[in-house]
Design goal:
40 residues, mainly alpha, 38% helix
């Protein structure tokens, strides 16, 4: 698949539910979530 796309973060009332969740993770788990895996 060739092309480009833009990922936007959902923000509600100036807060990001994802950021709140992500910031609560321990370092090892956050590193795993933050990794980008290439498509098969």
């Amino acid at each position: 698949m060739n092309g480009s796309f833009e990922i936007q973060e959902y923000v509600e009332a100036g807060r990001s539910p994802f950021a709140a969740w992500f910031n609560g993770l321990d370092a090892v788990t956050a590193a795993r979530v933050d990794r980008i895996h290439p498509a098969a």
